[in-house]
Design goal:
Layout: H1 3-22, H2 68-77, H3 80-100, H4 128-141
């Protein structure tokens, strides 16, 4: 192909692309909808005055000097999370001690006493009523 035909082919392609671009329809402009009415009207709350900077229960004249080491020690002593972890460690130690108790030797014994009177149900031994009376009378003596 010659360069002239190549240029003619490129020009035709550009014209068709331009015609396609012109054939597009513009998008409609979106309409702005007004905000819906509020369910509750806005309420204005009056501003309250700020409290005094003096802390309740703290006497500024009775302050104690505190070093950084003392402050860290006091914080560690009064920290509830650390106290909870200390108790968790104690609980784990007791659980370990209980688990090791499975291997302790166990000695058991069992003793019992049973007294049993069985009546005879044969004709040669006699009636059951006499036997039960005899058993009852011997039970009373015992």
């Amino acid at each position: 192909m010659t360069t002239g035909r190549l240029l003619l082919l490129i020009a035709c392609a550009l014209l068709q692309i331009g015609a396609f671009a012109q054939a597009q329809t513009p998008l409609p402009t979106p309409t702005v909808t007004p905000d819906p009415p509020l369910a509750v009207p806005p309420v204005s709350v009056p501003l309250r005055p700020l409290p005094d900077a003096v802390r309740v229960g703290v006497d500024p004249a009775a302050q104690l000097p505190l070093t950084l080491a003392d402050a860290v020690e006091m914080a560690l002593r009064n920290n509830n999370d650390i106290e909870a972890f200390r108790k968790d460690v104690r609980i784990a130690e007791f659980n370990l001690r209980g688990a090791r108790g499975v291997y302790d030797p166990v000695a058991t014994s069992e003793s019992f006493y049973e007294r049993l009177t069985t009546p005879t149900a044969s004709l040669s031994a006699g009636p059951l009523t006499e036997l039960s009376l005899n058993v009852a009378s011997t039970d009373r003596r015992a």
